[in-house]
Structures are given as C-alpha cells and as structure tokens.
Design brief:
The complex is a heterodimer. Chain A has one domain. Chain A is built from ten helices and no strands. In chain A, helix 3 runs antiparallel to helix 4, helix 5 runs parallel beside helix 10 and helix 6 runs antiparallel to helix 10. The longest helix of chain A has 32 residues. Chain B has one domain. Helix content of chain B is 77%, strand content 0%. Chain B contains seven helices and no strands. Chain B starts with a helix and ends in a 13-residue tail after the last helix. Classes of the chains: A mainly alpha, B mainly alpha.
Chain lengths: 300, 213
C-alpha cells in the first residue's frame, strides 16, 4: 500500500522538483521566476504536439525516449522508502538498479548518434565519459551501505543506522550528491539553462526530439532526478528511525529540500571547466572508496 | 563513545590527506595542513580522555599552536612574498594523485593489519601510515617548495600519530624536542623558500638544479 502511494507520489511530484530548483535560482537572482508548475505545462504542451523525425534517423531514434522512460519507471519500483521496502525487491537488485541507468544512457547515446549531427555526437561522448567516472562512485556508495547493513538488496540498505556510522554516511551522502549533480547534468557539471554547444551535455543530446518524444525525455529526466535524489534522502532517513506511513511526508520534504539545495548550488557556483570535471568525479569515487574502506575496518 | 570520537578524528585525517592530494591552490593546501594539525591535537585529547593530565594538556596546546597556527602563518607569509597562488604543473596530476591516494590507503590498511599493535583504535596505525606515505608522495610529486614543506608536515603528522598509536605515553621532553625540531625545520624552509624566490622569481624547487656550476 505504502509502496504504491510512494510510486504515485514520485510520478506526480517529479517534475515539480525542477520547478522548485528553478524558483530557488530565481529568488537568488532577485527575479520572480517561472511558475512552479511550469514543467507540467511544458509536458502538456509537448504531448499535444506531433513528432517530427529527420529522414536520417532510424527506429533507434524513435525507441530511445520510450526505452529511457521505461528504464526509469522500472528503477522507480526498486527505490525503497527508508526502512520500508520498495514495490519489487530481491537479492542483489542494486546491480540491476544501477544498470537500468546504464541502459537508459546507452540508448540516449545511440539515438543521439543516430541523428548524424556532430553536436549530438559531442554531447554523447561527454555523457559517456562523465558517467564512466560517476558509476564507480555510485557502486562504492551502495557497496559501503550494503556492507554496513549486511544486506545486498536495495530495500534493506537504509534501515536503522546508528550514530557511530555518521562519518561514513556523511561521506556516502556527499559522494552521492556529486554523482547526483553529474548524472542530472546540473551545475557544476553542465548548465541546464544554456543552449551553447560548448557547455551542453544532456541538452545537446536531445536537440532533435520534439513533441511527445521530447516530453518523454524530459519526464524521464525528471524521474532520474527523483530517483537519484531519493537515494540521498534515504541515507538521511536511515537515521530517523521512522516507520510506515510517517516516512512519506518526511521523504517528500527531504526531496523538496534537496531541490532547494540544487538551486542554491547552481546559484553560488559556476560551471567547472571541462578539464576539471574528471577531477571532481574521481574525488567523489575516492570519497566513496574511503567510506567503503572505513566500513570494512570499523564494522567488520 | 570515546572510540567513536577517535574514529571521527581519524576519518577526518584521512579525508584531509585526500584534500591535500586533490587541491592545486597552495593556500588551501596550507589551510588543510593547519586543520590536520588541530585535528591531531583533538586526537591526543580524545585518546587520553580518561586520564587528562597537565602534561597532556601542555603537549596538546603546543601541537595545536605550532601546527595549527604558527606553521601556516610562516608558510602563508612565504607564499605571499613569492606571489604564487597555485601549483601549475606538478609531476603527477591531481586526478592521478587521488588515485595514488587510494592505492596508498589500501597499502596502509594492509600495513595496519600486519602491524598488530595494542592501540585504542584499530584504524590509528592505518591513518599513521597513510599520512606518512601521503606526505612522502607530496614531497616527490609536487614542484613548489611550499607544497613540499606541507608534505613534510603531513609526514611528521603521520609519524606523530604512529608514535601515539604505538607508545601512547611518550615522555613530554621527547615530544617537545620533536616539536622544536619541526619548528626549526619549517622556519629554515620558510627562509629557504624566500631565498629561492628572491634568486629565481619563483618557488619551483625543480629549477634548483640550474645552480650547478
């Protein structure tokens, strides 16, 4: 029951978070900003339109958004809510969880290459490069949590942390946050607002989509934001010791706080030079590896 | 509870080592090494929490004052005169340094397991080896003299941590003597940095070989 409400909440609220992040940035800049529900208006507008396809593209280009969206929907069903398990869970499902993101990325990259545009090829190359560096960090984070809780299912990772695990979980949370910003193409890795080919990663890969396809891509991106952010919020929830239905509002509040945090980061930081990005991502991996090593040593 | 506190400080020491390996700005390197010195003071306090004596307090005060405030002040002054703000081209790049840091961490864990010492926290020997090797690596891999001094200080912190882990009770005279030695070393190195700078207009120690006649 809670798991169904939880998934419904994610499906409804996911685009709202982008509105919150945008509003935070607007407040920082002293602007009024777009409406909080702008993402929903955009999705509705796009869904009402027809799709236009270039003649150079093949079925891969058309399948890309659908596969991406279905991967995110599948990943969403594995995301637990604090100590209460997700809708689906089995041993080692965290490997499947991470590779669902891999499948989504693979098809996004293929369909970007399918258009034959050199810009999209450039974006695809960057996307693959950055995610190659971000994936070890994500794996190390989940491995550290798995070792800490003695559980290799994603649903058991966020239960009953004690205060002695605080430094470990802080390391994991910081590392996850860096991965979260990188995977969602936010500042300092990519600027979601610009349409300048030198700075774009995600934006440049979806230039050729229009209409419902673009709506699917954007909605999948919103779900990705929600799912990866949900991991971070869950790390904090594991301290709370809350049970059952009480977790839902706390989780939602945590996601809103995370969206505000993203907005704050985007307002106070500049985008990193492309050469500096690998350094930050390797740093995230190092933090996660350090957390894993500490878990091995302190909680044998 | 006290063991938790010791572990927290040790985790911070590990983290600061990675911070030093990954940052190119010399001022932030100096600041991190200062924070490391202060954390070392906390480590001694937390390790001796049951039996705080005047002797321990005195040593902690000396460690924190020297490593947390005096050395950074000296280095920042040397840096300001040299008008260098960052290490532009180290021998080993920053991403490479971080990866080597992980390797050092693994080696230190292995060494920590091998050296079965009767210590308060099993992590302490590991951290000692990690700091020692990181300091050594910084001295080898960086070109600017300031970073090499920072590496020397980190190495000294590692030796200090190891001494604390292995012996616990070192006579106050020995500890103060070591601190005095380090102080003199950093003082001399500060002067050396100043001299290198006034001779060459930079603090790149790699260029010293051009002094050969």
């Amino acid at each position: 029951m809670i798991a169904s409400i939880y998934i419904l909440m994610a499906l409804v609220m996911a685009p709202f978070l982008q509105g919150v992040a945008n509003r935070t940035k607007a407040v920082f800049a002293g602007r009024h900003g777009q409406p909080l529900l702008q993402s929903y208006y955009d999705l509705y507008k796009l869904l009402c339109k027809d799709a236009v396809y270039s003649r150079t593209t093949t079925w891969i280009f058309r399948a890309g958004p659908l596969i991406g969206l279905s991967c995110m929907l599948a990943a969403l069903t594995f995301l637990p809510l604090g100590s209460s398990p997700a809708m689906f869970h089995f041993q080692c499902d965290l490997v499947l969880f991470i590779y669902l993101f891999g499948v989504m990325r693979f098809f996004a990259v293929l369909s970007a290459l399918d258009t034959g545009s050199s810009f999209e090829g450039m974006g695809a190359s960057r996307e693959v490069f950055f995610s190659t560096l971000a994936e070890p960090a994500l794996f190390f984070c989940l491995a550290a949590l798995a070792r800490l809780t003695g559980n290799i299912s994603l649903s058991g990772l966020f239960a009953g942390a004690t205060l002695s695990a605080l430094p470990l979980l802080a390391l994991v949370a910081v590392s996850l946050f860096i991965v979260f910003l990188s995977e969602n193409c936010r500042i300092p890795f990519d600027d979601p607002n610009t349409h300048l080919e030198l700075t774009m990663i995600h934006e440049v890969m979806i230039l050729d989509y229009g209409g419902p396809d673009l709506a699917f891509v954007l909605y999948a991106a919103a779900l990705k934001f929600w799912i990866l952010g949900g991991l971070i919020v869950n790390v904090f929830l594991s301290f709370s010791g809350l049970e059952g239905a009480m977790l839902l509002p706390v989780f939602a509040a945590g996601m809103l706080a995370l969206a505000v945090a993203v907005g704050v980061v985007e307002s106070v930081m500049a985008r990193l030079r492309l050469l500096k990005v690998p350094q930050l991502l390797v740093g995230a991996s190092v933090l996660a590896a350090l957390a894993f090593a500490l878990v091995l040593r302190l909680h044998p | 509870m006290m063991n938790n506190l010791v572990d927290l400080v040790l985790a911070f020491l590990l983290l600061s080592g990675f911070g030093l390996l990954g940052s190119s700005r010399l001022v932030s390197c100096i600041r991190i090494s200062a924070a490391q010195g202060i954390a070392l003071g906390f480590l001694i306090l937390a390790g001796n929490f049951g039996a705080l004596s005047l002797r321990v307090m005195l040593i902690v005060a000396a460690v924190v004052a020297l490593k947390g405030f005096v050395f950074p002040r000296l280095l920042v002054r040397a840096l300001r005169e040299s008008e260098t703000s960052r290490e532009v081209q180290p021998f080993v790049g920053y991403v490479g340094s971080l990866v080597i840091g992980v390797v050092i961490l693994i080696v230190s864990f292995w060494l920590g397991l091998k050296a079965a010492l009767p210590v308060a926290s099993s992590l302490m020997v590991t951290v000692a080896f990690f700091l020692f090797l990181t300091g050594l690596f910084l001295i080898i891999a960086r070109k600017t003299a300031v970073n090499q001094v920072v590496g020397y200080l980190v190495m000294e912190n590692g030796i200090y941590t190891f001494g604390f882990a292995a012996a616990g009770e070192i006579p106050a005279l020995v500890e103060l003597g070591v601190l005095l030695d380090v102080f003199v070393a950093v003082f001399v190195m500060g002067i050396a940095i100043y001299r290198i700078n006034s001779t060459f207009d930079h603090i790149d120690s790699d260029q010293l070989r051009s002094l050969r006649g």
